Structures are given as C-alpha cells and as structure tokens.
Amino acid sequence: MSTSEKAQGGWRTNKWVRAAIPALLLRCSIGTVYCWSVFSQEIADHIGHSKSSVEWAFSFAIFFLGMSAAFLGNVVERDIHRSSLIATICFSAGMILTGFFIYYGGQHQGSMLALVGIFISYGFIMGVGLGTGYLSPVKTLMLWFKDNKGLATGLAVAGFGAAKAIASPIMTSILNSMDGGVYKMFWILGCVYFVMMFCGHLLLAKPADWHEPAADEKKPSTIEVIRSKPITNYIGIWVMFYINITCGLALISQEKAIVKCIGLVAFAGIISSIAAIFNAGGRLGFSAWADYMKDRNTIYKMIFILSIAFTVLVMLTGGIKNGYGNGLLIALTLGLIMVVNAGYGGGFSNVPTLLSDHYGMGSISAIHGLTLSAWAFAGLTGNQIATFIVNHTGEFTEIDGNKVNPVGYQNVLYFTGIMYVIALVLCLTLVRPSGKAAEEKAKVNK
Q: Fold for domain 221-437?
C-alpha cells in the first residue's frame, strides 16, 4: 500500500475528521439562528412592519426545527448523507430567500407578501434545515466516541451554542458596513454557510463496523422501542426537556432588558457574550461530566436544583426590580442569567446520550428527533409567555434612557420557578435509572 493510500485510509477512519469536524461545520452554521436579535429590528425597519410581527419568524424557525426533527428522524436514521444534504440545501436556501423577501419588503413598505415570505423562508425552509442538520451528526458522534458519548455530543451541541458568540460580531460588522443592506448580509452568509455545511456533509460518515439495518430488514418501530420501558419514563424525559427549554427561552428572551434594569446597559454586549459562553460551556461541560456518572439523569437534577436555587434567591431579594446600584443583587441576577444559560445548554447536550442509555443506539436518531418536538412547542411558548407576563404586569418606566418593566421581568421568575420545580419532581419520580446505575441495579436484583 502506497503512502498516499495509507494517508487516505487514515483520514477516512479518523473520528475527528469523520464525525467531530463535520458536526461542528454543520452545527456552527445552523446555530446562527440564535443571532436573530442582532438583526430583527433592522428587518422590521427595512420592510415597514413592527418588530413584534417580525419576531414570529424566529418562533416558526424553532417550531419547524423541532417538528422536522420529529418527522424526519427516520430519514436521518436510514441515511445521514441524504439528511445532511437536505439540511445544507434548506438552511442556505432559506437564508438567501429570506434576503430576497427583505429586499422586496424594502421596495414595498408594509407588504404582507414580504412578511409571509420571511415566515416561510426563515421559519419553514430554514426550520427544516435546522431540524435535519441538528440531528444528522448526533448518532454518528456517539458511534465514533463510544466511551465518551457525552463529550462528543457536548462538543457538537456546544458548536450550536457558540455559533451566536462567533457570528454575532461578524453580522454586526456586516450590517454596519452596509447601510440598510440587511438583505445583503443574508445573501453573503447564505453562500458561506452552504460551503461550510456542504463540506460537513461530504466528510460525515458512520464507522465502517456499524451495521445499519437494510430497508427490508425487520426493525422495531420507534414507538415499540419507547414502549420497551414504561411509557412514563419517556414522558418524564420529554416534559422535563420541554420545561428546561421553555424556562431558558423565557429568561434569555428578556436578558437584555434585565441587564438594562440593573444599570448595566453599557456592558450589555459583554454580558451577552459571557452568557453565550456559559451556554456553550454548559453544553460541553455538563455532558462531558455525565460520562463519569452512573446515571446521566443526575445532570438534570443538578440543572434544576441550581436553577431553582438562583431563581428563588432573586425572587426573595427582588434582584431585578431592586438591583440598580446594589452590587449584591446585581451579582445574584447575573448569576441567575449564567446558571440558566448553562443549564439550558446542558439540557440539550445530555438528552441524546440519556435517551441512548435508556433505549439503545438502534433507533436513537428517530427517538431523539421525536423528543426534539419538545423544542418546537417550547419555541412557541417560552418567549411568548414571558412577553405576555411583561406586557400585562408591572409598568414600563425609564432607566438610563431605556424603557423597561422591572416588576414584569421579576414576575417572569414566578412562572419559571414553578416550572423548574415541576421538572425536578418529574426528574426524581418518572425517569428511571439508566446506564451504569441500571446495570448495577439489575445485578443486585439477580
């Protein structure tokens, strides 16, 4: 065998080249969906619609992310090359089409066609790309990194979270250099992300020793696999995953306003970047830590306990409404923001490995996809509930020249606190021990 053949064989069997790098290329592209707040106001101003109307594009994107993952999970299970190609085409085409409808809206101020076009392009088409792109690398990573599944999935999910921190300043720079050219940004980045994701699509491959059942080979359905354990076990995982995302979105959607309430508007950008680092760090740190635990569900117990503790502290002290000029209350409020961000990210990275511990690897893409439907519904409820609470409780006042509602933001915590408690109860009662803990329990019973 020649040196070139050996080298080619080396990269073809390298877990970093065939799993980790393509996962990051895919996830760092689609993760930029979380940059929405960077340009949402510019889109609204450019097309002549209110920001609240335009905001639905992001909610639809998250909804169709979850629903496409739920309905296309079997496609991902059968053929990751097809699913990663679907993700590449849909995500980049969705971005370019969004740019077109923003451009059209600029020429026809107040046009409903422009608004609906953005909903379809950014919400539906990009949403399908998000769902298939999010799912495609997961099983491949866990197959290549059998002994460190949490580290592998955490690395990829961290890429999704870190995309905001990486892309936000780039997008801001493009927007500042192109006066009124928000649509040009979508065209430029749509092409860039196509190249990145297509490279990831070409590199992504499962290990050669993994046998995927043929299309005509009998295989248990997703529901049959789920029902191999008490159905309450899966319901518990789905609901606690939904609650963690809902509470995370409820607080994160109000993050900038909360920072203004406590008098740190000058540091809003820095705090947002630090929060994004905690989000990405939670995705990688919590999941990697779970590799050394007997039961991965312990991570969720920790996330919910920490979230409850900081939520209660800020509730009891009135940290948001009384925080202006008070160092201790500012620290508590910032602590809550960072803990929720870390727990939000950690919940995402741990769910596929927790599911694989419970239901095995055979149908993990389909089961994970079905579970991501929780993300779809949380995307429609989390920030919307928080916005409703802020708009219907307390009153808006001016702090450092910014219109904010300290009491309203404080009241959001009553909702998230109750939800976190429910999630912890489900985590402790419905979700059974898995992984090493289940194996040890089985040995004792014998």
A: Growth Hormone; Chain: A; (1.20.1250)
